Amino acid sequence: MKAYVLRRLWQSIFVLFAVLAFVFFIVYLIGDPVHLLVPPEATYEDQAVLRAALGLDRPLLVQYGFFLRQVVQGDLGTSFRHGVPALPLTLQRIPATLQLTGVAIVLAAFVGVPIGIYAAVKRNSWLDHLSRIIALFGISMPVYWSGLMLIMLFSVRWNLLPPSGRGTWQHLVLPGITMGLFATAPIMRLIRSSMLDVLNQDYVRTATAKGLSSTVVIMKHALRNAAIPALTVFGMQIGLMLGGAVLTETIFSWPGMGRFVVQAVYNRDFPVIRSSVVVFAAIIIFINLLTDIGYGVLNPKIRFD
């Protein structure tokens, strides 16, 4: 296990540098940031001076080499808009995004998993049919649409919850539900289908024949094996939720990394875009590593070669 983790960490470093290379060159497609940083009356000479001060007048490969040297030193550049190092500026937004993602994960785990189990155990019952309808609705519903509908109902019409901002637990409810619905639906469907496959296995029927209670059979024997494919999807959903945070945080004006990236794209703040993408990539890589380790916890027979 230790050798596997070390190998994955080395692979993660190469992946991060590949992400850095991709995002470094791709940001130039959104336009020249100098036009947004100078006043409208600025002359061409003024723009040239600012472009030289930002290092944007050099050849692209020279800029990339200088950027790599900064990265090795732990520096992802200075924000064009804010004038401070981009990485600390990005890291300040992580707690807000992780708080929102944590609520969505809890909702998916404590709502999607129990309903998926019950729907499999009580197959073709009214709850099973209802869960499939809810799952289909949740998968088909875009994040931005569900967020806007929740604001319209709970904030505009009923005036129960604040529509935007961050502060109290009430500000967390609507964006948390919006992201939670995005993850709950596929988890619910996968747990149901995995449990249906496992419940028909011989070892489950043997455990039932031994006189074990249905709760023990389901939780100890069936769920442990059904959770392995669900764990894969759960890890993927966390990554998708981090990506979905861009829309959710923009809709609810949540001061997290997603909204920060959108603002950086509008401002053509290249260092902030690069640092934000790298932080997102690092979090997703870490989650994937934890997911792989979780396979061994659920099934000790799995070998990490």
List the helices and strands and how they pair.
Elements lengths: L1 H25 L7 H4 L6 H10 L6 H13 L13 H6 L2 H28 L4 H15 L2 H15 L11 H31 L2 H8 L4 H38 L5 H11 L2 H29 L7
Compact overview of the structure:
The chain is mostly helical and about 300 residues long.
Task: Describe it.
There is one protein chain. The chain has 13 helices and no strands. It has about 300 residues and is mainly alpha-helical. It folds into two domains: about 90 residues, no CATH class; about 160 residues, MetI-like (MetI-like fold), CATH 1.10.3720. The termini are close together.
Q: Please report the total strand number as a whole number.
A: 0
How many domain units?
Answer: 2
Kindly provide the name of the CATH class of the largest domain: Mainly Alpha
Number of helices, where a helix is a run of at least 4 consecutive DSSP H or I residues: 13
Which descriptors apply to this entry?
305 residues; 13 helices; mainly alpha; 76% helix; MetI-like fold; 2 domains
